[in-house]
Amino acid sequence: MATTDIERRIVLITGASRGIGAETARVLAARGDHVVINYREKRKRAENLAAEIAAAGGSASVAGADIADPDSARALIDGVVAEFGRLDVLVLNASGGLERDAAPGYAMLLNRDAQTRLTRLALPHLPEGGRIVFVTSHQAHFSPTREVPPGYEPIAASKRAGEDALRAMTGEFTDRGIGFTVVSGDMIDGTIIVRLLERRDPDAVTARRDQGDLPTVEDFATAVAEATTLETAPGHTVYVGGQDYLPEAVTSPATVRG
After folding, report:
1. pLDDT for 10-46, tens place per residue?
2. 145-187 confidence digits (pLDDT tens)
3. pTM (2 decimals)?
4. Could you tell me the end-to-end alpha-carbon distance of the chain, in angstroms, rounded to an integer?
5. CA distance 51 to 6
6. pLDDT over 90 (residue 235)
7. Using CA atoms in the order 182, 216, 204, 147, what is the torsion angle rounded to 10 degrees?
8. How many Å apart are CA 197 and CA 182, to the nearest integer?
9. Within a 10 A sphere around the Cβ of 51, how many other Cβ atoms?
10. φ, ψ for residue 133, nearest 5 deg
11. How far apart are CA 125 and CA 85, in angstroms?
């Protein structure tokens, strides 16, 4: 018997028209979830991804929104709830700030303020047992204690600020019975961030490769997808790659991948 939308989890993935978000959508759809592919500008690319997922037997839809804009973010959540009646999982994947035309302060606006705003908008619609997953990088997660690659500082500071702001909400998540997991990865091979860093400071990327193979988009997306069902303590962090970053006490297979 085919899975219906009533039986499927409704999963909203921000910034999902390409890269890690798109691959996460593929993985979750293949596991039986309905994925809502959020995009900011690339509607056609999001629609092509949804069609690809449908052709493979999965279920997907698209939702355009600039999550950094308060009205657009509200319309995104309202639209998902109006269409499906609920939201089961929120994957906070969208990030940015290295774009050439990015305005001063944009990184903090997107990587901290937009993440917490969207979470607060989603909270009333997430049921007990719902999940929130925040996607970040080792370069941001460990930035308070580790050197940050030159040029990546605005991303590192703002994504760490976003993570801290969400962690401050953990008590509220727990009171509502909602799981919260952070997934942090080393530089992910093939992503736009790594390509931008290679243009600005090739040595920074080479230094990471010298530590071992970088995780692939597929590796990282699989970890993000698994975090939507992983039974862990609130605020648990899943690490993907970058063994040299990790505390010696981090040894659990559920915590470290790659």
Report:
1. 999 999 999 999 999 999 999 999 999 999 988 999 9
2. 998 888 789 999 999 999 999 999 999 999 999 999 999 998 7
3. 0.88
4. 36
5. 20
6. yes
7. 20
8. 23
9. 12
10. -125, 125
11. 9
DSSP string, the chain: -PPPTTTS-EEEETT-SSHHHHHHHHHHHHTT-EEEEEESS-HHHHHHHHHHHHHTT-EEEEEE--TTSHHHHHHHHHHHHHHHS---EEEE------STTPPTTHHHIIIIIHHHHHHHHHGGGPPTT-EEEEEEEHHHHTTTTSPPPTT-HHHHHHHHHHHHHHHTTHHHHHHHT-EEEEEEESPPBT-HHHHHHHHH-HHHHHHHHHTSPPPBHHHHHHHHHHHTT----TTEEEEES-GGGS-TT---TTTEE-
Task: At 251, list the tokens.
Answer: 């040894």
